[in-house]
Design a protein that fits this description.
This protein is mainly beta. Helices cover about 0% and strands about 50% of the residues. A three-stranded antiparallel beta sheet has the order 1-2-3, with no helix packed on it. It has a domain of about 40 residues.
Length: about 55
């Protein structure tokens, strides 16, 4: 019997926590439907963030 595993990684910014137009970047790792959110301890300018691509 084979088992199937799933994995995904997505990035986003939280604009509500922005300071001086810079917002923290977060990552979500999903494995087999279980999620974990982490802060990457990086900030990006809100105007440079592309939410469709999930990157600056």
């Amino acid at each position: 019997m084979q088992s199937q595993s799933t994995f995904s990684l997505s990035f986003w910014i939280n604009a509500t926590r922005a300071i001086n137009n810079y917002s923290p970047v977060y990552a979500r790792i999903t494995v087999n439907g279980k999620r974990a959110n982490i802060s990457l301890k990086r900030k990006v300018k809100i105007s440079e963030w592309d939410s469709n691509k999930g990157k600056a």
